[in-house]
Amino acid sequence: MKWDRFHLVVLGALVVFGFQNCSPVNFSQTADLASVGSDPCTLNPADPLCTPGGEVPEWKTCHFNGQILEEGQSVVAYLNSSVSYGQKCEAETRVCKAGALSGSYNYASCAVGVPESCLFNGKTIAHGSNVTAYQSSSVEYGKSCTSEVRSCDNGTLSGSFSYSSCEVGAPSACLFNDRTIPHGQSVTAYLSSSVDFGNSCSKETRVCDNGKLSGTYTFGSCAVGAPKSCLFNGRTVAHLETVTAYASSSVDYGQSCASQTRICNNGTLSGAYSYASCSVGAPKSCLFNGQTVAHGATVVGYKAASAAVCESETRRCDNGTLTGSYGYPSCEVPCTDVKETTKYLNTMIQIFPGISNEEIARNCIDTSVPTLAKNMPTDAWSTVRFKNTCGNRYCANIKGMPSGRVIEMENGLSKVECRYEKTPATYVGSCVKEVEKSGTPLQILNDTKANILNLCADAGVDPNSLDPAKNASNWIKFFYVCGYRYCAKKGYADGRVVELGNNNAAQVHCYRDFAGSLPTVQAVLNDVANNCIDSNNPNLQTNVPSTDLQMERFMSTCGNRYCTAKGYSMGHVVEYAGTAAVLKCLKK
Questions:
Q1: 303, 328 contact by CB (below 8 A)
Q2: Do 43 and 67 share a domain, yes or no?
Q3: How far apart are CA 533 and CA 542, in angstroms?
Q4: 444, 445, 450, 451 alpha-carbon torsion, rounded to 10°
Q5: In percent, how much of the chain has pLDDT > 90?
Q6: 264 lies in the same domain as 298
Q7: What is the domain count for the chain?
Q8: Which end of the chain has fewer CB atoms at under 10 Å, N or C?
Q9: Domain edge (last residue) among 151, 168, 185
Q10: Do 269 and 306 fall into the same domain?
Q11: How would you class 495 by CB atoms within 10 Å of its CB: exposed for 0-12, middle for 13-18, buried for 19 or more?
Q12: How far apart are CA 180 and CA 174, in angstroms?
């Protein structure tokens, strides 16, 4: 490009002002071309910078604190870089126009100073904080300490009291018979030190009030003269003491010993019976099939040793005579089919309807969930614990049955299913021995949360992703799905988690299958949900497992209703995916 005199003049001006921008001043403006010559566009109108749409010449920009501002741009500037606490930073907006920056403030930022703290008795009091001060360090007993609240305001402490504490003086004690009586306490004093038997000691309560003892009695104790004792069968009986005396030393079985209570009154014993003891003759025991049956005890007798229906009666020993006539100690019904086995298994289960939710929840209060309200079924987390843990504890604590669960909830009432670990002794069936040869139907296992999750996770799934502490869905699946899978991999037919403690210890109840009594039932998910429709959940959508609460109800209540509707005794959902559900149902 050809340089003429005009461009050289402009270049010189820019060099001069560029040198100025290197100085400590925070801002500068470019020189006005008018100061170095005529308008260049007048001299050279063909210059590209003078044509419409051309770029803004560099000589029309402004500089502020290292920032370049184009024509019309603005920046906020401050009068000072900092101000004291309580003052405000003063600012203005500076605008770049024709290379000149309006205004005069030089700072790009401004900081407000920190307020000062105060000192009170060697203690630093932050600005805006308070301290309680006292007029004096102590006052006499009966008076009150005068205090004020002093506030720190930027290094200045309000008020004038200078003591940080104040003590009320102690009251004076009293002296009674060389015994110190503290202020406010009392002592029992007597009019005299002794009275004759039959008379009463006169006393008063004397109270110490700051060194002065009320009342006038001067004795610290008073003794009543001792009464005379009595003698019964070589035994000394104290005054007013009683002794049981008998008319004879023994009576036959079936009779009663005649007795009376004799009392000693100052040397005279009332009554006339003279024996200190009386024994009733022992009753005779009975004999049943070589077994001795004590008097009052019972034994179960059977009409036959083996029969299709075993008839039994309870025989009682009464002083050597056994009631009843059945002479066999046991009876067996041949174990012929699954019905007898399932009948046996069903004797282990009892249903208790109409139990209040509060009664069940009370059995669940512990250190991890310490209040009744937190044990009530209000959300998915608490409902799972209520149905399994609280239901199980209710059965164990109230019904004496080691396993159980809540299967229905409605209007504050629950239906509870409780199970025995073994069949009740009253049940007689040919299949009992056959079934129990391979173990009890209910097996209670204790293990860790980690072991249960490891057995629950599908291939390729991180067990930690199933941790019940992560969310309510995992919590539900841990109790139902993981409990079932854990028991299945341990060789059982069914199961569920009933306890999970803060220390990650868990209790699992597993159930054995005998003769196909606990089959796996495949079902359509909507069919299971349809069996759960009632007045509280009146349509299909409220019964499918679309929310955490619906998932819990679907697996427990809906599963149980589906099994009973299909002719089973009870059951629950153990798995579901897509449109399919898997249940474990107990045959009747």
A1: yes
A2: yes
A3: 8
A4: -130
A5: 71
A6: no
A7: 5
A8: N
A9: 168
A10: no
A11: buried
A12: 6
Q: What's the pLDDT band for 23 if we cut at 50, 70, 90? A: very low
188 occurs within a structural domain: yes
Span between the terminal Cα atoms of the chain, in Å: 107
Phi, psi angles (nearest 5°) of residue 195: -140, 160
Q: Which two tokens stand for residue 201?
A: 């000691």
- Strand-by-strand arrangement of the 268-269 sheet: 242-246, 259-265, 268-269
Residues 21, 104 share a domain? yes
Q: Which residues make Cβ contacts (< 8 Å) with residue 10, sequence separation at least 6?
A: 33, 36, 40, 59
SS (H, E, C) 317-380: EECCEECCCCCECCCECCCCCHHHHHHHHHHCEEEEEEEEHHHHHHCCCCCCCCCHHHHCCCCH
**Tokens at residue 453, please?**
């999750």
Q: Is residue 106 situated within a structural domain?
A: yes
Write down the mean pLDDT value for the chain.
86
Stronger pLDDT, 67 or 440, i.e. the higher one: 67
462 pairs with which residues across the strands? Answer: none
In DSSP terms, 94 is beta-bridged to 75
- Quick one: which of 77, 101, 92 has its CA closest to 28? 101
Helix, strand, coil shares of the chain, percent, nearest 5, are: 20, 30, 45
Contacts made by residues 477-480, CB under 8 angstroms, sequence distance 24+ = 478/449, 478/452, 478/453, 479/384, 479/388, 480/555, 480/556, 480/572, 480/573, 480/574
Which of 446-451's residues contact partners 24+ apart within 8 Å by CB, and which partners? 446/505, 446/506, 446/507, 446/508, 447/486, 447/505, 447/506, 447/508, 448/504, 448/505, 448/506, 449/478, 449/500, 449/504, 449/505, 449/506, 450/504, 451/486
How far is the C-alpha of 287 from the C-alpha of 285, rounded, in Å? 7
Q: Give the phi and the psi of residue 422 in degrees, each rounded to 5.
A: -130, 165
Co-location of 9 and 106 in the same domain: yes
**What range does the domain containing 90 cover?**
5-112
* Alpha-carbon span 278 to 270, nearest angstrom: 19
**What is the rounded distance in angstroms from the CA atom of residue 586 to the CA atom of residue 338?**
12
Q: Is residue 58 part of a domain?
A: yes
| 180 and 203 inside one domain | yes
The answer for residues whose C-beta is within 8 angstroms of residue 198's C-beta and 6 or more apart is none
Residue appearing with tokens 């987390």: 381
Segment holding 39, helix H or strand E: none
In angstroms, the CA 246 to CA 370 distance is: 56
Q: For 48-78, how does the pLDDT look when each residue is reduced to its tens digit (9 = 90+)? A: 545 555 554 556 899 999 899 999 999 999 9
Examine the domain organization and report whether 163 and 87 are in the same domain. Answer: no
Provide, rounded to the nearest whole percent, the portion of the chain with pLDDT above 70.
Answer: 85
Q: How far apart are CA 269 and CA 347, in angstroms?
A: 63
Residue whose pair of structure tokens reads 């609240």 in the numeric block: 149
Compute φ and ψ for 338, nearest 5 degrees.
Answer: -65, -30
Specify the 3-state DSSP secondary structure of 437: coil
Report yes or no on 76 lying in a domain: yes
